[in-house]
Amino acid sequence: MNVNRVILVGRLTRDPDVRTTQSGQTVATLGMATNHSWADKAGQKQEKTEFHTVVLWGRLAEIAGQYLTKGAECFVEGRLQTRSFVGKDGIERKTTEIVGESMQMGSRPQGGQGGYAPRQGAPATARPQGPSSRPASRPAPSAPMEEEIPTINLDDEKDEIRIEDVPF
Predict the structure, then answer these.
(1) The pTM is what?
(2) Which of 13, 44, 110, 168 is 20 to 30 A from 147, comparing alpha carbons?
(3) Are 123 and 66 in contact (CB under 8 A)?
(4) What pLDDT, on the 0 to 100 scale, is given for residue 168?
(5) Structural domains in the chain, sorted by start
(6) Contact 12/70 with Cβ under 8 angstroms?
């Protein structure tokens, strides 16, 4: 039996880099950091940060590009993939990346307000963004608004669940 499974929960080290391939496929590259802490033999707390490159494709890439920003917490599940490429200096290099197959957004970056909204400058592909009811010069409210997260209870559902009914 072979298993190639990666689960990461960390914070983005930069805004997602979203591109479109020549064939029209959307791809996003995320930089993520995860921390590991332990106590050494002397009882001193030690901490190590690992940096990861995550590649998302298709609709997942569009959502990441639209909603994620530097510092945002993110859960990614996927697989490891090593690929070779020729650098700008002409030398062949290898890199190991996580190819994300599912993603969930976590808490906003520290200092962020409330739930997720499309970031400025991001393409509005998931949901259209209406005009703001608040003038740009007015400061944002200080208390974050509580966001209700809809759930689907399969026991209560009589009909099929439609993809249009899923809130993310």
Answers:
(1) 0.64
(2) 13
(3) yes
(4) 54
(5) 1-35+49-110 (2.40.50.140)
(6) yes
Q: Give per-residue pLDDT as tens, 50-101.
A: 999 999 999 999 999 999 999 999 999 999 999 999 989 999 999 999 999 9
Q: Which pair of structure tokens corresponds to residue 80?
A: 């490891």
Instruction: Give CA–CA dist 65/23, Å, rounded.
Output: 19
Write down the residue that tokens 């409330």 correspond to.
114
| Dihedral sign (CA 89, 95, 101, 105) | negative
* Residues facing residue 6 across a β-bridge: 78
Tokens of 113: 């307000």
The 3-state DSSP class for residue 63 equals helix
Enumerate residues 6+ apart whose C-beta is below 8 A from 106.
9, 72, 73, 74, 75
CA dist., res. 78 & res. 80, Å (int): 7
pLDDT value at position 137? 42
